[in-house]
Fold this protein.
Amino acid sequence: GTLDASRRRELHTSRDLNTSAEKQRQFSLSDHCSLVAAVRGHVTAQENLTCLYVDSNNLKKIPAEIGTLRRLERLTLSNNSLSSLPAEMGALQRLRSLHLANNSLTELPAPLCQLRSLTFLDVSDNKISLPEDVCLLRNLHTLWLGNNHLRSLPPRFRAGSTSRKSFHFH
């Protein structure tokens, strides 16, 4: 099932999250909810959580506890005010799809380059520069980089790009 807490000013975690199914697989906190309270309080207790949508919340920081969501396969953090990401996100080894568009990111933390299952990465509309280790993302098929201030791709990434299916630089 899906718990959708969209367009709320606050999330009443005791009522909203505790009434969700024990086997919750998707969770949405779109539009102005408290990710810190949700992740620290109840979302981390959802062992089967595979999708987390936290877009359009004007978030400035992602709590380190995000790294405890070990079964997460899709994470959407687009349209926030993030300038950095916690290194603990590198623990999300099942993550296949990561949406970080339209934030204020200037770099990807090195642990993110260890996400072996990642097939889709959207970092468009940021201020990003790619680390040399981005070439370690061997399963990455789609990379969206548009509207960044990239001067070039890391040399090792360009050399391995033939296995990549789709780059978007617009």
